[in-house]
């Protein structure tokens, strides 16, 4: 059994009341995936959604040349597949388990929302929040260099998943350098150079799929 992480603040499940969470659980069925499994595939169509209850996933897409672009990292409480389930269109990204994950699969999600109006309004607010975040990331790509974008993503991971570690913050990084490159819109070589620059400044320490941040404020300043 994968260790259950706390629900992420602002994610779908964290915004619901106890009665709403119970209604959601009764409307779906639990499923589990191993690390590396594909939960959803870009281009597919389906009316089901997934609410993560433990573990983390990446949402990615591929360019015409085959390059992977990581669109988001999602953790416990996240709602996945809602746009395709609501408008009948194709999945806009592939969802892959970065570690063992568990969740609730709900079919006929539109029907569920028709019966639960407040949850539908909550989802609408969540979608607006995602759009604002997407706008912010587009600005980052135009305004920040690679090191700034890498620093921004590390700060985000630390705030979401970090644990105190000898005066610093340890992040069990679920991403390879290739995936981190896809998340920052840079090449693997550029990301390696950026991480080396942050290490040389004493801001971070890196290991296999982990980062220890020794100077969070300094990393935030580099991110800006």
UniProtKB/TrEMBL annotation:
HTH crp-type domain boundaries: 144-217
- Report whether Cytoplasm shows up as a keyword of the record: no
Q: Which UniProt keywords apply?
A: DNA-binding, Transcription, Transcription regulation
UniProt xrefs under SUPFAM superfamilies: cAMP-binding domain-like, Winged helix' DNA-binding domain
In which domain of life is the source organism classified?
A: Bacteria
Q: Name one GO cellular component term.
A: cytosol
In this protein, which residues make up the domain named Cyclic nucleotide-binding?
12-102
InterPro entries membership: cNMP-bd_dom, cNMP-bd_dom_sf, Env_Response_Regulators, HTH_CRP, RmlC-like_jellyroll, WH-like_DNA-bd_sf, WH_DNA-bd_sf
- Pfam families with a match to the protein in the record: cNMP_binding, HTH_Crp_2
Sample GO molecular function, one term: DNA-binding transcription factor activity
Keyword presence, Transmembrane helix: no
Spans through the membrane:
none
PANTHER family for the chain: CRP FAMILY TRANSCRIPTIONAL REGULATORY PROTEIN, DNA-BINDING TRANSCRIPTIONAL DUAL REGULATOR CRP
Identify this protein by name: CRP-like cAMP-binding protein
From which organism does this entry originate? Thermocatellispora tengchongensis
């Amino acid at each position: 059994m994968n260790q259950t992480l706390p629900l992420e603040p602002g994610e779908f499940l964290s915004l619901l009341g106890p009665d709403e969470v119970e209604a959601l659980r009764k409307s779906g069925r639990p499923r589990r995936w191993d690390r590396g499994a594909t939960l959803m595939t870009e281009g597919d169509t389906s009316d089901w959604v997934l609410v993560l209850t433990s573990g983390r996933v990446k949402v990615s897409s591929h360019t015409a040349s085959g390059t992977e672009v990581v669109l988001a990292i999602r953790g416990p409480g996240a709602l996945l597949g809602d746009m395709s389930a609501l408008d009948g269109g194709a999945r806009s990204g592939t969802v892959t388990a970065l570690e063992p994950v568990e969740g609730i699969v709900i079919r006929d999600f539109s029907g569920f929302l028709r019966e639960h109006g407040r949850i539908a309004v909550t989802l609408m607010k969540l979608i607006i929040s995602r759009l604002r975040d997407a706008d912010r990331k587009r600005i980052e790509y135009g305004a920040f260099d690679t090191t700034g974008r890498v620093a921004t993503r590390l700060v985000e991971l630390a705030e979401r998943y970090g644990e105190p570690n000898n005066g610093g913050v340890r992040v069990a990084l679920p991403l390879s350098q290739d995936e981190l490159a896809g998340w920052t819109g840079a090449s693997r070589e550029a990301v390696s150079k950026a991480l080396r620059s942050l290490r040389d400044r004493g801001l971070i320490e890196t290991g296999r799929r982990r980062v220890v941040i020794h100077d969070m404020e300094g990393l935030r300043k580099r991110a800006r």
